[in-house]
Write a structure and sequence with these properties.
The complex is a heterodimer. Chain A is built from no helices and 11 strands. Chain A is mainly beta. Chain B is globular, with a radius of gyration of 14 Å. Classes of the chains: A mainly beta, B mainly beta.
């Protein structure tokens, strides 16, 4: 149980374009989903907390207009990186609250060229 | 907010020896402490976790200890093997009927020397 599907697993996009990352819980409902970012050789840093049916809460320094989060249902949250730039290249991962622990998505490696 | 310090940043041990990674946290309200292993090119995988109502937990060669008073917790790997080589992250969270997100340490690169 507690399976989370995150896709795409990797994506290469041109600078200025937008990329959508999807995180879906397959067998449980997640009221809260977290989006993290990991730059090479660094730790995972929380970007935003996403609650179903309400606006996401962004961490300081994370631009909400650049990183659009939609948590439309208890099983789906999306992160859209708008107008991506090379400095947005990173590993993005969703982490879901399943009620008795956390379940990680498999991550998305974004490369902006 | 919570702050998690992890050390060492790099740890090299001989195969078969033990490895210990230590973390401290700042928020005394934190009550959930997981450890993750991240291999190159992959996402973190949970290897063991402990909640604040216990002081130690063991799973085969891996154990975690928690000292709530001192606000530190440690990962112990015994009889290390080459496949233990990876980056390990500790994390802390407040768990009260709903998660508040994980705060991660900066990671420890564990190298097992053959």
């Amino acid at each position: 149980g507690a399976v989370v599907s995150q896709h795409p697993s990797w994506v290469i996009c041109k600078s200025g374009t937008s990329v959508k990352i999807e995180c879906r819980s397959l067998d449980f409902q997640a009221t809260t989903m977290f989006w993290y970012r990991q730059f090479p050789k660094q730790s995972l840093m929380l970007m935003a907390t996403s609650n179903e049916g309400s606006k996401a809460t962004y961490e300081q320094g994370v631009e909400k207009d650049k990183f659009l989060i939609n948590h439309a249902s208890l099983t789906l949250s999306t992160l859209t990186v708008t107008s991506a730039h090379p400095e947005d290249s990173s590993f993005y991962i969703c982490i879901l609250d399943r009620g008795d622990g956390y379940t990680f998505g498999s991550g998305t490696r974004l490369t902006v060229v | 907010g919570e702050n998690v310090e992890q050390h060492p940043s790099t740890l090299s041990v001989q195969e078969g020896d033990s490895a210990v990674i230590k973390c401290t946290y700042s928020d005394s309200a934190s009550n959930y402490f997981p450890w993750y292993k991240q291999e190159l090119g992959k996402g973190p995988q949970l290897i063991i976790d402990i909640r604040s109502n216990v002081g130690e937990k063991k799973d085969q060669r891996i154990a975690v200890t928690l000292n709530k008073t001192a606000k530190h917790f440690s990962l112990h790997i015994t009889e290390t093997q080459p496949e233990d080589s990876a980056v390990y992250f500790c994390a802390a969270s407040i768990w009260e009927g709903g998660a508040d997100g994980l705060t991660f340490g900066k990671g420890t690169h564990l190298i097992i020397q053959p």
